[in-house]
Amino acid sequence: MTRLSKRLLQGLRPWCFPLAALAALEWYSRTAGKDSDALAPPTRALRALGGAALDGSLLQATAFTLGAAALGLAVGAALGIALGIALGLSQRAAHMSFFSIEVLRPIPSVALIPLAMLVFGFGLRMEFSIVAFACFWPMLILTQAAVQQVEPRLLEVSHVLGLSPAQRSLKIILPAIVPRLFVALRLGVSLALVVAVTVEVAANPNGMGYAMMIAQQSLDPALMLGWLVWIGVLGYAINVAALRLQRWVGHRMGVTA
Amino acid sequence: MTAQGLRPRSWFGPALVFLALLALWWVSSHGDWISRVFLPTPEATLDSLREGLLTGDLLAYSGATVSRMLQGWLLASVIGVGLGAFIGISATARAYLQPTLEFMRPLPASALLPLAISLFGLSPNMVLSVVAFGAMWPVLLATVHGFAAVEPRLQEVAQCLQLSRRDFVCKVGLPNALPDILAGMRLSLTVSLIVAVVGEMIASQEGLGQAILLAARSFRASDLFAGIVLLGLIGFASNALLAKLERRFLKWQQP
Q: Is B201–A107 a contact, with Cβ atoms under 8 angstroms apart?
């Protein structure tokens, strides 16, 4: 067997199991499970998804979910990074706020869904506020750890140069923590997407999670499965993109690991 | 911090910050900076908490949520470790299955709730199955990684000693993977709490999730906050307990 054909066969290995499972589902839902409200043939699911793409609902729902996730991540990350830098630089502030952070951090973001619903009603603000809360804590903790690991010599340089706190943050701290920030941002991106879909499934009548719930409630298993696959593919693609971005930034900032 | 013990200076600062935050809450609710419909006073929250726990159903609801979370988590851990060990030790199994596992990793567990509702209806078992399924992935992936990363020298030693597959898994693979497995179990505990609460909200199952949703719908802000406090406590306690267990199980790693 030539080396090229061997490499091709090995490249096909990851596809064996998913394709077999999809084929089994297709066969089952066309024969024994024909009248099922829960399962549909994958081909029909793809066609339903195509239909949603053609009538614009795919774009609208995806834009809402991704927009809410991005907005929430931006707000949560901005606040988390700012506070993280402040707490990372001051040992005393970190010690004093430790207890309060440990008390507030374990609150699950889903517990705030009813509160956000009460305050904002349904819509964008409810969703992105919960995403912001969820993303704030990991960004805070990771930024604080990153700042605490900044090379002390750099901080001494900023002291010697007499930089103001703002200049120190902008010129010395921020460039030094950028690689770790992007690692934290990659985690934040996947967390933001998961929380956004969760809020939509639980309460918010907008976005991809809600579209999936509506499809299930209208007993349209093909469309429901289509949305599920779309959410999975989108999540995977965004995570891969975030990982690539993180690696590229790390490479540009000279991280050799 | 352990060396300082309970010297007044070491806990005074954190307590001060925490009390300052409580004071901020008190002032903003009493001073109507934020309407009392959205932000109840601390005393009202405490009253709701006390009333709910002592005479009301809050204790039963908390118990239901915690039991759902723990059952799902244990189920997920057992299946995750078993399946992960099976996949992790075989390089061929990893080559076939790991890309699929990596694809399933970013999928939100809550996204499976509609499918589970179609399959199982609105029942406690439906919520449990989604909790277990969602919580399985961190443990499964961590176990696969832990078994796959066994030091090659140890594998050679096992081959020299002619260890059976089962002996290899129990004596070499599991101890090597234990740190990863415990970290994965900690993550999956968080996931199982979240999915349990969301499942209760959607499927109207008895529990804290449904309780806080109903409280929000009836504009009972103090009951809502009492529920949120309880959920925060559950999250805090479960994480702290698991961290303690993790330290105990991994004591052999400390020199």
A: no
Residue type, B110: S
Distance from CA of A5 to the nearest CA of B (A): 17
Q: Which residue among A37, A39, A197 places its CB closest to the CB of B111?
A: A197
Range A177-204 average pLDDT: 93
pTM of the model: 0.90
The span from the CA of B196 to the CA of A99, in Å, is: 27
- For residue range B98-119, list pLDDT tens digits in order: 889 999 999 999 999 999 999 9
Set of chain A residues whose Cβ sits within 8 Å of the Cβ of B197: 108, 110-111
Question: Which amino acid is it at A229?
Answer: V
Put simply, the answer to whether A197 touches B231 (Cβ < 8 Å) is no
**Average pLDDT of the residues in B154-176:** 87
- Burial track B217-246 (b if 16+ CB lie within 10 A, e otherwise): eeebbbbbbbbbbbbbebbbebbeebeeeb
Q: In the predicted model, is pLDDT for residue B1 greater than 50? A: no
CA distance A169 to chain B (A): 24
Across the interface, do A112 and B228 touch by the CB < 8 Å criterion?
A: yes
Shortest CA distance from B225: residue in chain A: A115
Would you call B106 and A224 a contact, using CB atoms and an 8 Å cutoff?
A: no
- pLDDT tens-place string over residues A98-138: 989 999 999 999 999 999 999 999 999 999 999 999 999 99
Closest Cβ opposite residue B113 in set A14, A201, A235: A201
- Read off the DSSP letter of residue A108: -
Chain B residues with CB-CB distance to A221 below 8 A: 118
The answer on pLDDT for B5 being more than 70 is no
Crossing angle of helices B58-89 and B174-203, in 10° steps, is 140
Asked if the model's pLDDT at residue A19 lies above 60, the reply is: yes
Q: What is the pLDDT of residue A33?
A: 76
Token output for B86: 């099976």
For residue B166, pLDDT beyond 60: yes
**What tokens appear for B15 in the block?**
């307590």
The whole-number average pLDDT for the span A168-181 is 87
SS (HEC) of chain B: CCCCCCCHHHHHHHHHHHHHHHHHHHHHHHCCCCCCCCCCCHHHHHHHHHHHHHCCCHHHHHHHHHHHHHHHHHHHHHHHHHHHHHHHHCHHHHHHHHHHHHHHCCCCHHHHHHHHHHHHCCCHHHHHHHHHHHHHHHHHHHHHHHHHCCCHHHHHHHHHCCCCHHHHHHHHHHHHHHHHHHHHHHHHHHHHHHHHHHHHHHHCCCCHHHHHHHHHHCCCHHHHHHHHHHHHHHHHHHHHHHHHHHHHHCHHHCC
Q: The complex's ipTM?
A: 0.88
Q: Is residue B6 scored above 70 in pLDDT?
A: no
**From residue B55, how far is each of A120, B52, B205 by CA, in Å?**
32, 6, 21
